[in-house]
Each structure stands twice: as C-alpha cells, then as structure tokens.
Amino acid sequence: MSSLKRESQTCSACGITAGIFVCRGCLKSFCLHHTNEHRNSIEQQMETILFNHERLRQFVASEEVEEYFQQLHGHVSQWETQSINKIRDTANDIRQQLKFINQRYHDSTDDQLRQLKQQIRNAQNDGNFFENDLKMWQTEIQKLQSTISEQENLQISLANNSESFISRIKLTDKTDYDGTIAIDYFECNRKHVNSEDFTNLNLKGEYSSGNKLFRFKLDDLEQNTLVLMGIISASRAKNVDPYKNPTFYGWSTKNLVYLHGVPHSNIDNYQSD
User: Coiled coil among the record's keywords (predicted)?
Assistant: First the structure.
C-alpha cells in the first residue's frame, strides 16, 4: 500500500508556523500573520519609492539645477575673459618692443647713412679721394648693411615653457576622485548604551548639494561587529539614534538598507561584504 507524504514549508519570517502563501516577488512562504506583515513592508517600500520620485521630480523642476549650470557657464566666461586679457596684454607688449627696436635701428642707420653720403659727395666734388678712402667707405657700407640685416633675425615664436601660458579647461565629473580622506576630517565619539559600546565617526562639515565620494578603510574589525554608514540631516543629527532618525539613509551589515531610519533587507539585491 502506497502513501502520499506532503512536504510542508514553514514561514520564512517566524520559522514556526506553516507557510500557506508564497510571495510571487521573493518566492518565500509566509503564514497568515506574516503574509500581511510582508505585504505591509512592500507597501511601505512603494511609498518610499513614490516619495523619492516626487522629491527628485521637484528638484529637477526647481531653479537650483538651472542656477548650477549658469554658475558653470559663468566659470567658462570668466576663464575666457582672463585668457583674452592675457593674450591682449602679451600682444601689446610685443608690439611695443617691435616699435622700440624698429625706431632705434631706423634712426641710428638713417643718421649714419646721411653722414656717410655727405662725406662721399664732398670728396667726389673736391676730387680728393684715393684707394684707401674707397676701401674705408666700402667697409662702412658693409657694416651698415650688416646692421640692417640684423633686423631680419627677429621673429615671432611660441614659447615652449613647462608652465602653460593659458591653462586649458575641461568638463569633469566630481566623482572622478582617486584619493583618501584623512582621519583629521572626522570627529570620533564613543558612547555606552545597553551594555554595548558604540563608536561614531562623524565627518566634519556639512553638505547641501552635489556629488561626494568618501572612502573608508577598516582595520582589525572584530567579528559580530555592526558597521553602519549613511547620511543624516544636520537638523536632526545631534543626540538622535540613527535607528530612530527619520532622516537617516544608509547601509549596514547583514544586507540591511536604512530608509527613513527603518532597516530593510533585499533592497535592489544589496549585499554587504
């Protein structure tokens, strides 16, 4: 005689009562009591998503985004103006140098040519010149020719200095940062609650907007140690337990994600190391 044995699954929440409902999302079984509780948790997560969506929509529609891009445009215009002024000042300086050199060569050479011409004409009119005079005048003409040729050695060239005359700008991402933050940028506080020691490492300073990148390195982490990282509103940061703070958003061990100070598991498949 054969018998049919039915396998039963316990509730994944309490592990005691038989699971009678299977969630189509997480494929876990729940008893009647925890089925309602599980559904309420899903509804709460939906409310959180709607809240974050509405807040993001309001931010995108606000003037803050446009003002930020206007500020970036202002930086570009400022760089453009400063670069143009540098170019204009340098060009005017070179023009003044050319004017001075040209005037100096012109006046000096013209005066010497005028004196030499007068000597040659006087000697020619008097018939008082010989081979040595011709040689002397030819030498003087060659010297003046060399002086005039020296002007042709001048040229405009680009200065290949190690430091750029005008710094080139580019559009970058603030999160492209490869560095570490020293411990001096943090405030470390210890407190004793319910026979357990807590160490709070708070970043000095506050931020109201923008993308920030912080990197941490934890050495000698003891087993069964809870690590919790996140952000809290400055208006509620002092003397408020993160677990009871509605402005707290963060991540922790045991695959927990905190939204409004409430821990959630299995959020976007987040898994802690």
Answer: yes
Q: Three-state DSSP class for 11?
A: coil
H/E run at residue 231: strand 228-231
What is the maximal distance between C-alpha atoms in the chain?
156
Task: Tell me the C-alpha distance between 201 and 183, whole Å.
Answer: 9
Please state, in angstroms and rounded to a whole number, the distance separating the CA atoms of residues 25 and 27.
6
Backbone φ, ψ for residue 197 (5° rounding): -95, 135
Backbone angles phi and psi of 222, in degrees to 5: -75, 155
49 and 75: one domain?
no
Instruction: Note whether residue 196 is domain-resident.
Output: yes
Question: Does a structural domain hold residue 12?
Answer: no
Which tens digit of pLDDT belongs to each residue from 88-119? Answer: 988 898 888 888 888 877 777 888 888 888 88
Cα 74 to the center of its chain, rounded Å: 17
Domain check: are 143 and 71 in the same one?
A: yes
Residues 251 and 234 in one domain: yes
Per the structure, the count of domains in the chain is 3
Residue 241 in this model has a pLDDT that exceeds 70: no
Residues 261, 190 share a domain: yes
Dihedral of CA 127/133/134/139: which sign?
negative
**Beta carbons within 10 angstroms of residue 242's beta carbon:** 19
- What distances in angstroms separate CA 31 from CA 9, 24, 42, 69, 124, one per listed residue? 10, 15, 16, 53, 131
Domain boundaries, position 211: 183-265
What angle separates helix 63-126 from helix 32-61, to the nearest 10 degrees?
Answer: 30
